[in-house]
Amino acid sequence: MPDPKSITVAHSPDADDAFMFHALANHKIDTGWLTINHELCDIETLNQRAKRNELEVTAVSFHAYPYIADKYVITRAGASMGDRYGPVVVSKEPINPAELKGKKVAVPGPLTSATLAMRLYNDNVELVNLDFNKVQDAVLDGSVDAGVIIHEGQVTYNDLKLFKVVDLGEWWYTKYELPLPLGCNVARRDLGEEVIAQFSKCFSASIKYALEHREEALDYALTYGRGLDRGRADKFVGMYVNDYTIDIGDRGMESARLLLKLGRERGFITSNAEPEWI
Fold it and tell me: Which of 85, 162, 252, 273 is within CB 3.0–4.6 Å of 66 for a Cys-Cys bond?
């Protein structure tokens, strides 16, 4: 058996990540010689910290991966894919998608996949980078014309009487017949193959445990639900913890490669690094 090893895993404090990590965070599964600690940050902060090589294992946006590919490898488990749904562009007053040109649109950080998807959908807008949890307020107070909402906002924006302009996951599927790649988990290469393989095994087991003990894992997820009731938390978790999360598979990898390829071709991504899974 390898010597005991402790690593820190960073992920965002939202319901779907909490659901995935429940079994690890609450010691429901045996991790063997690997001790796994947890750190919580919003996704754009994680993207930027991974760029600085500060994190051992972390959730990041697929959009960010080309900039960290020399230091990190993607785990096959843990992908967040929007299968015919995804980040939603919303507005205070009804806007036809064709009328977005020239409008101010709030986005949840420059390296998020939601921002890349927005640019691929329509780059003739003025992007305003905000913390993800300030996007809805900016739309409501009129400081922007529209905003791209991620996380739980995708199932709660109706409560604020906001209007859907376009669902970027729907748009992506209509155009490419593939799920929209949003988030993944990466491990720093200098951890070594043995540690990365052990983490990946434990992470896969944690996701499977959550899906097999859904109500228990949902109880834990609700503590990070940011105001979601149980029904909507269950819906949100179901959107982003699915077969692609257990293993991204060929279709998921095809879509991730396509997203990054399109980003490079349009000049939105300046790194030529390809995604690499382990």
Answer: 273
Residue 213 designated active-site? no
Q: DSSP letter at 228?
A: -
Q: Within the chain, what is the greatest distance between any pair of CA atoms?
A: 61
φ and ψ of 14, to 5 deg: -125, 170
CB atoms within 10 A of CB 70: 10
- Same domain for 215 and 202? yes
How many of the other CB atoms lie within 10 Å of CB of 178?
Answer: 18
Do 72 and 192 fall within a single domain?
A: yes
Query: Quick one: pLDDT at residue 153?
Result: 82
Torsion angles phi and psi, residue 249, rounded to 5: 70, 170
How large a percentage of the chain has pLDDT more than 70? 100
Report the distance separating Cα 68 and Cα 266, nearest Å: 20
Do 96 and 172 reside in the same domain of the chain?
Answer: yes
Provide the 10 A C-beta neighbour count for residue 238: 14
Rounded to an integer, the average pLDDT of 24-28 is 96
Burial (Cβ within 10 Å: 0-12, 13-18, ≥19) of residue 55:
buried
The residue from 11, 22, 63, 151 that is catalytic is 151
Radius of gyration of the chain, Cα coordinates, nearest whole angstrom: 18
Judge whether 271 lies within some domain: no
**Contact 106/136 with Cβ under 8 angstroms?**
no
| Domain enclosing residue 37, as ranges | 5-81+180-265
Q: Write the CATH number for 70.
A: 3.40.190.10
Residue 195 CB partners (closer than 8 Å, separation 6+): 5, 7, 34, 187
The position carrying tokens 């109706």 is: 158
